[in-house]
Amino acid sequence: MLRPMRVELTPGTVALVAGGPGDPDLLTLAACRALEQADVVLYDYLAPDVAGLVRSGTELIAVGKRPRSTDATSQDDINALLVAQAKAGRRVVRLKGGDNYVFGRGGEEWLHCADAGVPVIVIPGVTSATSAPAFAGIPVTHRSLSQGFTVVSGHAAPGHATSTIDWRALARSGTTLVLLMGVKNLAAIAAELRDGGLSSDTPAAIVSSAFGETASVVRGTLATIADQAVSAGVRPPSIVVIGAVAGLDLS
């Protein structure tokens, strides 16, 4: 049954908490309340530093999955940890960067906990899909330029067996395209979008490490942005924005 958000972590409960785009000031009040009650926090490497927001004695466990890192925690191990900590009678916060339900595997974690009989609450938050472009002065919609935006994962390259994205259809969608995890395959994605009819002159931008000390923005066009990313040494976490709004700088 749907009901208003009330953040009351009881022993044996898991809270899936969205950490936002990295700046603790962009945590929601509900997220802060959950952190204040937590006995243990399982956090990703993109989650904000919350050491000053938890009670003394709260255990902080890093369970990040940094790209291409050999020091990573598998999703199966994370699921098992959530259940084990809850079964031990602890108030558990699973803190993710961005939003747990936007490419964050929050659905998988909810299902695993529910199957184990562990109560779960979900605290949504600010997704990097919209906040990172805003940080760079790019509104993902603008009345005279874009009436919508489409958020997709670029993790699987066009034509790869695991890809389910119809890139050529997106090229004709008339919406701003926001790509998460799209840097590695950006050249192939840009080529597919051009083959789908999207003009090579379409503005494009890459926002890297938004709200962090190493934040940067690379601006170009659909034809140039992949090469510019290589020249600039762009690395994750980065958000790619393709569309007329990427030509704006409202910062």
Mean pLDDT value:
94
Q: Tell me, what is the CATH class of the largest domain?
A: Alpha Beta
Helical percentage: 25-40%
Give me the count of strands.
Answer: 10
Choose one word for the global shape.
elongated
End-to-end span in angstroms?
Answer: 42 Å
The tally of helices reads 7
Question: How are the SSEs placed, and which strands pair?
Answer:
Layout: E1 14-18, H1 29-37, E2 40-43, E3 59-62, H2 75-87, E4 92-96, H3 106-115, E5 120-123, H4 128-135, E6 149-153, H5 167-171, E7 176-180, H6 186-195, E8 203-208, E9 216-221, H7 225-232, E10 238-242
Parallel strand pairs: 1-4, 1-5, 2-3, 2-4, 6-7
Antiparallel strand pairs: 7-10, 8-9, 8-10
Helix pairs in contact: 2-3
Task: Please summarize what this structure is.
This protein has 7 helices and 10 strands. The chain has helices at residues 29-37, 75-87, 106-115, 128-135, 167-171, 186-195, 225-232; strands at 14-18, 40-43, 59-62, 92-96, 120-123, 149-153, 176-180, 203-208, 216-221, 238-242.
Mind explaining what this structure looks like?
The protein is an alpha/beta fold. It has 2 domains: 14-126, Tetrapyrrole methylase, N-terminal domain (Cobalt-precorrin-4 Transmethylase, domain 1), CATH 3.40.1010; 129-247, 2-Layer Sandwich (Methyltransferase, Cobalt-precorrin-4 Transmethylase, Domain 2). Helix content is 25%, strand content 20%. The chain contains 7 helices and 10 strands. The protein has helices at residues 29-37, 75-87, 106-115, 128-135, 167-171, 186-195, 225-232, and strands spanning 14-18, 40-43, 59-62, 92-96, 120-123, 149-153, 176-180, 203-208, 216-221, 238-242. A 5-stranded parallel β-sheet has the order 3-2-4-1-5, with helices on both faces. A 5-stranded mixed β-sheet has the order 6-7-10-8-9, with helices on both faces. Strand 8 and strand 9 (216-221) form a beta hairpin. Helix 2 (75-87) crosses helix 3. The radius of gyration is 19 Å and the shape is elongated.
